[in-house]
Specification:
globular; 15-stranded antiparallel beta sheet; Porin; mainly beta; 10% helix
């Protein structure tokens, strides 16, 4: 049974990629710029990503976790020179035995809300950047789905887009300032270096990491993510479909191990 499950897990990305190829004819070269905007975390573009992740190897019971991140990105024009971009991550999780024989949990996790203030035009050197605050909101519906802590800190992103290439870094740091006294304080740095290549027919190949360093426990979580996306259209609605895998280079004791799966669909709402 375990062999069959592993085979099924390994085949999911391949099936998803095959599905992307099947839909490839739904977009044309004119959509390449729109696909490229998705590689910019602070693009002036309303998007609603639905990102599904699956990881295994949690704790002594080899627990597993599946979670759907709903991640709306909404830009607002502040004036002629500046945008304000709201980025929200709302996790919905299904997990089993992630802390030994801890049973099953399903529900909402803690929300992370970022707000970036970003110039509307790149610098003379083509640099795009944004800075602002990030907030941790203890919305988890189960104690094993969140930390029961309020948190806040700074966040920033810097990137450059040159031809088909996009490369940059998104980072934040969150300190907890209130919440349950019997839960661990939050003091964590998040680093997301990324590089992406977008083809003229709206395929995007991305390599990134979403690493976190816990300063209180002195532990790293380092996954390396590789994914492929294709922008297609369902009627007039542009949608970016994504499939990918990740490998956990490092994780805290009891954290995920080995390979994980990422699938996604992003609804785009370009201006005009």
């Amino acid at each position: 049974m375990k062999t069959s499950c592993k085979t099924l897990r390994a085949s999911v990305p391949a099936i998803a990629v095959a599905s992307l190829f099947a839909l490839a004819g739904s977009a044309d070269a004119a959509d390449s710029d729109l696909a490229k905007q998705l590689s910019n975390p602070i693009a002036s573009l309303i998007s609603v990503p639905f990102q599904f992740n699956y990881d295994t190897g949690y704790g002594p019971a080899d627990g597993h976790k599946a979670y759907l991140n709903v991640q709306p990105v909404i830009p607002f024009s502040l004036n002629d020179d500046w945008n304000v971009i709201s980025r929200t991550i709302v996790p919905i999780a299904w997990q089993s035995d992630i802390a030994g024989s801890s049973g099953n949990q399903f529900g909402l996790g803690d929300i992370v809300q970022s707000v970036f203030f970003s110039p509307k035009k790149p610098t003379a050197g083509g640099i795009i950047w944004g800075v602002g605050p990030v907030f941790l909101v203890p919305t988890a519906t189960d104690e094993l789905l969140g930390g029961k802590k309020w948190g806040a800190g700074p966040t920033a992103v810097i990137l450059k887009q040159s031809g088909p290439w996009t490369f940059g870094m998104l980072a934040n740091h969150i300190w907890s300032f209130a919440g349950a006294s019997d839960r661990a304080d939050v003091n964590a740095t998040f680093l997301q270096p990324f590089v992406a290549y977008t083809t003229p027919d709206a395929w995007t190949f991305t390599l990134n990491s979403e690493s976190t360093y816990n300063w209180a426990a002195h532990e790293w979580s380092i996954p390396i993510n590789a994914s492929v996306s294709k922008l297609v259209k369902f009627g007039a609605q542009p949608v970016s479909l994504t499939a990918g895998v990740r490998y956990w280079v490092d994780s805290p004791a009891g954290g995920p191990e080995g390979f994980g799966i990422r699938l996604g669909a992003t609804l785009l709402f370009p201006k005009g």
